[in-house]
């Protein structure tokens, strides 16, 4: 018998886990509580204590573990690196805001002169400087108005101009977009009646002309957005419809304000208005690269009618959106424009450099050619040459749930991280996320990759 043996019971290791009040005295956690609130900090501490009781972390690391579990902000949304190759990924919030727009939002977060003329001290028009910037970007627009999204822009137009009257629209433009959203349902809900003309693949100016009568409010042209009709087709353009004697409303969808050399088939606001459109509607968070909002550009009388309609109040945007929109319109190139115009050769160089660095750390990484898309319903069928990091498929799930989430896409059994949608300054951030993923990647193969494939291989075209 060992003379040093004792019958004294061993100390339960769970008793070494520090008490909650002791952990909360850590100055780092006190700072986090001031920033995030006490509830999330206490929740993180309880989770860390439970991990210590299970032996997953040492009792002395409870505070560090709790800090690692805390979110970066008090909000529930998490910043994500978009490596899908879809520039305007609907599930990831579409257009990322520029640095100028983010700064403008921060400046506008407190009290602002959103509806006050500081010189006179009297009430001023809401969003006046943002609307002026929008008109400057689209010279053919006599007036402009902004609502909270692209669908709202059409709702306001239909309600204010066509309630109880007819909207003439081609059968080929009665579209359904993302998440089962159908344009005809939206328009009918406003109290307007739809007068369908032509066929799915061919609608001529004569088809429109034959449908016009004293009940017609306007002719509507809708960009097909997320699909193309090819072959034996015919579509009347604005120049053919403008002389018919009723207003022509054009929904260009993706928010391109002027022609873009890389997207010759994408409709834009300036061209439509010059061709004779009375009103153009569009989204602000697509090719414009701004915040979610709906743009209305057109004649002074029509835009005034829309802005003064009672529904306009319910659809108006807040000061943060106005600030971000103005900075987008007046500031430097947006991340969307930079991604759209990125040099494929430079993208390949970045991919090779990252692959080489990661391979040196033992990661199965390769640089491969890739194809990116615009997304968000913009430029359907257009692909953009790109380059990507190719990783084993199991990385897809591990990167999504990492401390710094990365969303890629699955192609031929590999996880591709497309660099056209990753700003170059974020390359090291991307590499760090990949390096930290292998510890969980080995166990993530059982995690379904279907979510990654559906969320990242394509973008919803919803407006």
From TrEMBL:
InterPro entries: PyrdxlP-dep_Trfase (IPR015424), PyrdxlP-dep_Trfase_major (IPR015421), SelA-like (IPR018319), SelA_trans (IPR004534), SelA_trans_N_dom (IPR025862). It is found in: Cytoplasm. Belongs to the SelA family. The lineage of its organism: Bacteria, Bacillati, Actinomycetota, Actinomycetes, Kitasatosporales. Its EC number is 2.9.1.1. Pfam families: Se-cys_synth_N (PF12390), SelA (PF03841). This is L-seryl-tRNA(Sec) selenium transferase. Keywords: Cytoplasm, Protein biosynthesis, Pyridoxal phosphate, Selenium, Transferase. The gene is selA. Residues 431-463 have a biased composition (Low complexity). Converts seryl-tRNA(Sec) to selenocysteinyl-tRNA(Sec) required for selenoprotein biosynthesis. One of its GO terms (molecular function) is L-seryl-tRNA(Sec) selenium transferase activity. Residues 1-20, 430-463 are annotated as: Disordered.
